[in-house]
Amino acid sequence: MNWQALKQSMADRHLSQFLGRSFWGLGDQALVSLTSFMMMVLLARELGPEDFGRFSLVYGGLLLFNALQSGLLTQPHNVLGASLDDEAYTRFTSTTLIAQVAFSLLLGVFSVGGYLIGREFGWSVAPLLLAMFPAIVAWQVQEFLRRVYYTEGRVRDAFLNDLISYGGQIAGILIVWRLDALTGPVAIFILAVTSGLAALAALWQLRERLIPIVDFDVLRDCWRFGKWLFGANLVQSGRIQIHLMLIGVLVNVTAAGLYKAAQTLVAPTHILVNAIRSVAMPRAAALYTTEGLPAMRRYMVRIGLLGLLPMVLYLIAVSLVAEQLFHQVYDGQYDGHAWLIWLFAIVYLLAYAGQVLTVVLSAMRITRAVLIAEALTLATGVLVGVPVIWLFGVGGALVTDIVIGATLAGALMSMLRTRAREPAPATAPMIEFVPAEVHTRGS
Q1: How many other C-beta atoms can be found within 10 angstroms of the C-beta atom of residue 55?
Q2: Which of 47, 102, 194, 438 is deepest in the core (most CB within 10 A)?
Q3: How confident is the model over 94-105, as pLDDT tens digits?
Q4: By the 8 A CB rule, do 135 and 191 touch?
Q5: Is the pLDDT at 333 greater than 70, yes or no?
Q6: By mean pLDDT, which of 76-85, 136-145, 406-415, 421-430 is the weakest?
Q7: Whole-angstrom Cα distance, residue 313 to residue 308?
Q8: How far is residue 42's CA from residue 28's CA, in Å, rounded to a whole number?
Q9: 426-440 per-position pLDDT tens digit
Q10: How crowded is residue 204: how many other Cβ atoms within 10 Å of its Cβ?
Q11: Please, are residues 101 and 141 in contact by the beta-carbon 8 Å criterion?
Q12: Where are the chain's structural domains?
């Protein structure tokens, strides 16, 4: 037998799978980021800096709730679910889906409560809080199901499902914009409707892996793994939203809108930052358990560099035409602040490094380290952010972001070096991660 030819054939197969998943994963994240980009740009143009600042603060609440979901349910599914056989996987997925629905409804109660209080006191954000309820439930359930596709390696199916959700959202927002009816609440309601339709489509497609069962052992496993990620996501997202609120309180709401408008022009790099988490985490977790740290490290270096180059090229291009871009995209409403994009470019490069390191630590199941690092950055953000934002406004906020990003990346790298010598966890043998073959019945 020609072992060299066999080895080369296996390498070619793994490379083909890697490139295929990376292509669909990047396409999926591009669709998600394009939708967010278009919605934010159109709202920034239509609402103006002050009202857009209010919308950004409320929309940030949606993102915070999604981050909590990620730590408790979607990331545990990506990591723990990747190693299960058919029967155990079905119980795991069914239980976590039911938990997801319950969790989303609970969060929705908070938004309704906020709306009732806001209506009583005449808050201008009350309609936005009302729109949050269906958006929380529909968006989170759809997000959970799309991450199930990632656990199974069915990245193409995740992309097709997101065509319904995010593609529909783009179409709906463009329609109401053309009708001169685009407002903050309308945008959030469109998000809710399209996410709900995509969730229904995914439920139908995944129905063979869903049964009416709640396995408390599964919930305990998710909690043991995800409690530190939940805390880390709470700290991270809380820090981001507190940061935006500090701008609104210490400067003004218009400044918060300006900060968000500048961030939106750099935000397409979320395609790469989020793709690292969605595409790489299940595969990295499987490699770490089956082949050890060296194999996982090689994979993460390869996929990390794959994303870094286009990110750097995009940030350079945007920085070179920042002034013209600000003027054309926002119709002159935010002129004179192109320098914010230069600072945001540094922030996002540091965020990318932090995301890669977070995926590595999560794959190694060292999630407590992620929480500790995030807690350190929260303390840094508050201690540095309050005086710097108060003194220097939006520019001070970006300087604080850079300090936070460098602190997070440094802390994560330090913890990774400390833990890298530890052996892989003693768990049941994991199947080779080709989930489309493992979890798809009748294939």
Answers
A1: 24
A2: 194
A3: 999 999 999 999
A4: yes
A5: yes
A6: 421-430
A7: 9
A8: 22
A9: 443 333 323 333 232
A10: 8
A11: yes
A12: 16-420
Q: Pull the structure tokens for residue 312.
A: 């750097």
Which of 68, 430, 158 is closest to 285 using CA atoms?
A: 430
Residue corresponding to tokens 């009202």: 51
Total number of residues shown for the chain: 443
Joined together, the tokens standing for residue 394 give 């939006």
For residue 366, the one-letter residue type is I
Amino acid sitting at position 216:
F
> Structure tokens of 206?
């995944």
